[in-house]
């Protein structure tokens, strides 16, 4: 495990004997923060993800996220540069040093297109989608599932190479549910860790005896493809309106009238 030595007055941290200077905040979530940092020796920018571990379970979840990053060496999955668990003031934080990808997330790119009234070109969609499939296949080949695939969890570099990130919800691809108690446990976990508008139908009402597997990612993958085509996910508006996404996913997706041409193109796609 990496060691964090200090946060000094100059706004720097040292992990594994390498110093990083704070530059600016990038993002903030419920229990995590992402800062832009600069390596003191190499001058390169990195993303520092700080995860607040409020109890033993949260620390184990952060440790699992670290292990998931370390498991893969794939150009479509975000790598881990260094990490450390830091105890300060009775609290524990996990610090993850990750590559910084300047262009940002797939969602941020789609938002800019929507603001300009433009659509993503078909060849760009296919290139990004193919890369996402490649990263997802690498995860599935190891016997795991991402469980929270969505446009905000896909980074894009300057060459439109997609990189899957936020591996904190990953777990074994195949989950055998035996009984109503286990079903409720899986369902509650999914409600906390799997974004509702990209969540597979079988995770809304988990059956008492069933097998949940990596096909949940394939559902999310389809929602991501739809979002690249339409600039919004198939269930985003339903969620924003406060309507039931759990009910909506039981019915076929409706293609907007202005986008009917995509339907014919999708029938001819093969990956």
CATH architecture of the largest domain: Orthogonal Bundle
- Order of strands across the main sheet: 1-2-3-4-5-7-6
Number of DSSP E strands: 13
Proportion of residues in extended strands: 25-35%
Indicate the CATH class of the largest domain. Mainly Alpha
Which structural class do you get from the secondary structure elements?
alpha+beta
- Largest sheet at a glance? 7 strands, antiparallel
| Whole-angstrom Rg | 20 Å
The global form is globular
Instruction: Compute the separation of the termini in Å.
Output: 39 Å
Going by CATH, the homologous superfamily of the largest domain would be Transferase(Phosphotransferase) domain 1
Poorly predicted segments: 3-9
Return the domain count: 2
Mean of all residue-level pLDDT scores: 90
Number of helical runs? 8
Helix share of residues? 25-40%
- SSE order, one letter for each helix or strand: EEEEEHEEHHEEEEEHEHHHH
Name the quaternary structure.
single chain
Could you tell me the CATH topology label of the largest domain.
Transferase(Phosphotransferase), domain 1
């Amino acid at each position: 495990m990496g060691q964090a030595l200090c946060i000094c007055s100059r706004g720097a941290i040292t992990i594994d004997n390498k110093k990083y200077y704070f530059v600016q905040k990038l993002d903030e979530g419920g229990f995590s923060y992402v800062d832009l940092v600069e390596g003191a020796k190499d001058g390169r920018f990195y993303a520092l993800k700080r995860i607040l571990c409020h109890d033993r379970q949260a620390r184990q979840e952060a440790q699992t996220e670290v292990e998931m990053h370390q498991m893969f060496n794939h150009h479509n999955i975000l790598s881990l540069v260094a990490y450390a668990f830091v105890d300060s003031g009775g609290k524990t934080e996990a610090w993850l040093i990750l590559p910084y990808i300047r262009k940002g997330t797939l969602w941020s790119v789609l938002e800019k297109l929507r603001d300009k009234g433009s659509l993503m070109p078909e060849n760009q969609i296919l290139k990004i989608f193919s890369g996402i499939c490649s990263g997802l296949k690498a995860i599935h080949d190891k016997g795991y599932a991402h469980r929270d695939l969505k446009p905000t969890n896909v980074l894009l570099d300057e060459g439109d190479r997609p990189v899957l990130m936020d591996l904190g919800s990953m777990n074994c691809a195949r989950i055998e549910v035996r009984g109503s108690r286990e079903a409720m446990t899986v369902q509650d976990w999914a409600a906390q860790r799997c974004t509702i508008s990209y969540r597979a139908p079988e995770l809304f009402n988990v059956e008492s005896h069933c097998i949940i597997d990596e096909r949940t990612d394939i559902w999310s993958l389809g929602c991501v493809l739809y979002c690249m085509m339409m600039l919004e996910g198939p269930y985003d508006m339903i969620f924003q309106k406060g309507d039931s996404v759990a009910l909506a996913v039981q019915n076929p997706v409706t293609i907007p009238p202005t986008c009917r041409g995509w339907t014919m193109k999708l029938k001819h796609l093969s990956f």
